[in-house]
Structure formats: structure tokens, C-alpha cells
Amino acid sequence: MVRVLSGTGFLLIAPLCTGAHRAGTYPVRMRIATVNVNGIRAAARKGMVAWLEASAPDVLLLQEVRADADTAAALLPGYRSLVWPSRIRGRAGVGVAVREEKIALSEVVDGIRSGAVGDPLAKKGRSFPIGTGWAGQIGTVTVVGENLERTLLLNAVVCEEIPDLVDVDPEEDLAPWEREPDGPARTPAREPLGPVDCYTWQTRRVLLHGDDDGVTGLFLGNGDKATPQNRYLVEPMTAWRYSEPQSKKLKAPVYMPRKLPTDRAFWRGLSTLVAQLSPPITVKGAGEVTPYRSPGVVDFYQDLMYHEIVPASGLILLHAVGIEYGSNESTIAELVDDVLSLPAGLLGQKNERLLAVVRGAMEETEKVANALWVLARDLDRARGGSPDTGKDAGRHAAAAFYQVIDERFPRWLTSLDQEDPDRAHARWRGLLRSEALEQQEALASAVPDTAFAGRGEGKNRKDVGRALLFFRRALARALPLPQHNAPAEDAERTPA
């Protein structure tokens, strides 16, 4: 059997076998082809039918079909097909076709697996998908040492030293090969019991078939499904965020994995790595809650600093890896692979001053980005743009600003290990102000002369002058200039 994972404009496939375990037979070899036809009618005119007859794939995956289901079926003789046309006539669309004597179309489309013997969730010998594996639901953060040995030791957390992991029982937190075999059937009520259990979680069951010469086939079935709610109690390599909807649903505080975003740099999620950067928030019905929980490996490093096992100064290198899925979590859309160096002082006992500086710098950066967003939107409206084009202009302006800041903030952050925090903060404010004014100049110079006359009436009027005025005010609020003592007036000055 073949499970097809469908996305937008393309298909991914994973070869499986048909009923191998249940029937005691070996899997049947099959040929799978994926083709971007660039319009199935055009492909047929260029000899696609002859190619199908010669290559005879058992499963055919099609992209850019650009036709309805009936048209595609007529051009695929000897195959059963299903097409998902684009919502826009004549555009894109994907499809799948199978040779019916080899495999049923329904099995390809629905992602049905052969059910393992004894699986209580299997129906009529078949088992349905259970979603992504455990690692796909989280974003992992590791502490990087100077070599592999050091890295492994820094991430092998001692659970009893971490408040969130203190209840993990090492006698029960075992790898699959250290406990009784699970067998082919999944255990519906099973939950991860600790870090080791998480690292070795069996999302799939694999049974190999073979003879004296080696492996000849396999049975692949569903394994155990792990839910992400409150797994900070057993999982030490993930940052966690408070979820108000989940908390209301379960009537208890719930934290969900803070997945690593692909649309922003790693440093912008610094508050989730160092939870002290985010002060408690008040939630209706729940009172005061901690918005984020740091990864256990970060808390473990902090504990090692406290016991003087690692230096309390210098830099800590963090490595983040994550996945962003596409439609219905059926495809991998983006991968996250980023590093960030933190000054160890952020995790120190006397870190209030440093935390305040970093928190202030992050908040000010966000305010400046928002001010540029508004400026770009207002300039677009002044030139006659619509609300939609104004939003697009704002997003582009903010992205251009962060493109510069994403390179400079990590370098500034590392400088805090050697520089006075207040002096460094003043330097960062100066950099923000300089970059904001430079981007303001670029945005204002790009608008046509008609934008100076503007559009609209009264308070809704938008022109270049008003847009720049509002921007300067927002910038002054975000980055107030240092206050200098004015010279004292001469009290004995004689009036004219």
C-alpha cells in the first residue's frame, strides 16, 4: 500500500506494503512515479500516454494538472484517477492515478495502513493515520559545547535538579529496548514518562520480513500517539507557552510547545528561552500565570552555573531545530536551523539589571518596527493605495527593517558579556534610531510627488507630511532622547 501526503501543488509519497503482517505475506514491489505535467492535455499531446505504456508505473502522482477530473481520467487509459483541481480555472491542481489491479485508489488517497494484529483502533483490518511524530510537534533547543562529549553532557539533564522534571521516575523512564516489548499494536492510553521515553517514542511500528539472505520486506503500522499538552513535565528540549484556549478546555493551566517560527529570526523568541524576560500575566479566571517556560536544558545549564560546574561568565551557544508543516501537516513546508549566543549573565543569580536591558532593547525594537509599518501604510494611502496594499507595504517595511536588525541584534547580545549593560543599551538605541531614520528616508523618497498632496479629508487625510510627523512622534516615544540638565537661570538677572 502507498500512503500519499498531499500538499499545495505537489504530492509526497511513502512506500508501504499491503497487508504483509496480517496475511503473513511479503510486500509486493511497486513502481511509483511523480510528474509535473504542466497541463495534462499538453502532456498528452507530447506523448504521455506512450510513456505510461512503456514505463507502466503502478502509482502516478501528478502536479500542475490544469484540468478537471473527467478530462484527466480520459487521458489516463488503464488507470483509476482522482484530481483535486485548483479553485482558479486553468491553474495548478494535483492528482493521483493507480493501476487498479495493483492497488485500490481509496487506499492511496486516504492514507490507510494495514492494521496490526491486536490493534484495538484498527477497523476491518485497517488503521488510519495518527498524525505527525513527537519530534514534529515541538521545536528543539540544545546547548552546544566545545565538542561532542561536552554537548551530550550539557543536554543530558538530571531531572531531579529541574523543578519541572522533578517528578520523573528514572525506574519507569525507559527506552523501548529496556522494558517489555510493546508488540505490533499501539497502546491508546500510553503517555511519555520522561526524557528517555520522549527521545525514543515509537510513533510507528515496523516489522521486518526476511529470509537467510536478508530483509525482503516490512510491515509499517501506526505506533503510539503522544499529545503535546503539558509535556514540559517530561520533555527538556522545548520552550513552552501558556495556552488560554487549551486551559479553558481542560479547566486547568495548559502549556503547549512553542514551535520555532520560520518567518523570524531565532533571537526574536528569546523570551521563551529565558522565561524571566517575560513577566507574569493576568488571565481572567486563572489569575497570574507565567507566559513561557524555558527549555529544561537551559534551566539545567543555569543549575550547573549555580554549582560552579560551568563558568558563570562567557557565552552560551544554543542551537534550534524545528519543522513547519504545510497543509494538514501532510508536507514539510520549512525547516528551522539557527544558533544564538547568550551571555551567561542572563542566567546568573544577580541578573536583574541585564534582564531589564535585554527586555527593554527587545521591546524598543518591536516599537520601532511597528512605527515603520505604520509609516509605510500611511505613505501608501497618501499615494492612493487601498487598505490591502497599505498592509502589504507595512509588512514589507517591517521585513526590511528586521533584515538589518536580525544580523545586528545577536552581535549586540554577545557584546553584553564584556560591555556595561547601560552603555550597551544606549548604543543599541542609537543603532535603532539611525536605522529607523535611514529607512524612513528610503520610504519617503520612493513615493510619487502626488503623495505630498495626499488623499482623504479631515482626520482621515493621509499625505507625506502627516505620515512623517506621526512617525517621528512614534519614534520619539519608542526611543526617547537622553535628558540633559539645562543650565540654571541667573536668579539675579535684571529684567529689561
Descriptive overview:
The structure is a single chain. This protein is α+β, with helices and mostly antiparallel strands and 496 residues long. It is 34% helix and 19% strand. It folds into three domains: 126 residues, no CATH class; 214 residues, no CATH class; 127 residues, Topoisomerase I, Chain A, domain 4, CATH 1.10.132.100. It has 15 helices and 18 strands. The strands form seven sheets. It has a four-stranded mixed sheet with strand order 3-4-6-5. A hairpin with a 4-residue loop joins strand 1 and strand 2. The longest helix is centred in the C-terminal third of the chain and has 31 residues.
Q: Quick one: how many beta strands? A: 18
Q: Note the overall shape.
A: flat
**Structural class of the helix and strand makeup?**
alpha+beta
- Count of distinct structural domains: 3
Provide the helix percentage. 25-40%
CA radius of gyration: 30 Å
SS element count, helices? 15
Main β-sheet description: 4 strands, mixed
Q: How is the topology of this model organized?
A:
Blueprint: E1 2-6, E2 11-15, H1 20-23, E3 32-36, H2 40-45, H3 48-55, E4 59-63, H4 69-74, E5 80-84, E6 94-98, H5 105-110, E7 113-114, E8 126-127, E9 140-144, H6 148-155, H7 195-199, E10 204-211, E11 214-222, E12 240-242, H8 244-250, E13 255-257, H9 270-273, E14 281-283, E15 287-289, E16 292-293, H10 296-306, E17 315-325, E18 332-343, H11 352-382, H12 387-415, H13 421-445, H14 450-453, H15 464-478
Parallel strand pairs: 3-4
Antiparallel strand pairs: 1-2, 4-6, 5-6, 7-8, 9-17, 10-11, 12-13, 12-16, 14-15, 17-18
Helix pairs in contact: 11-12, 11-13, 11-15, 12-13, 13-15
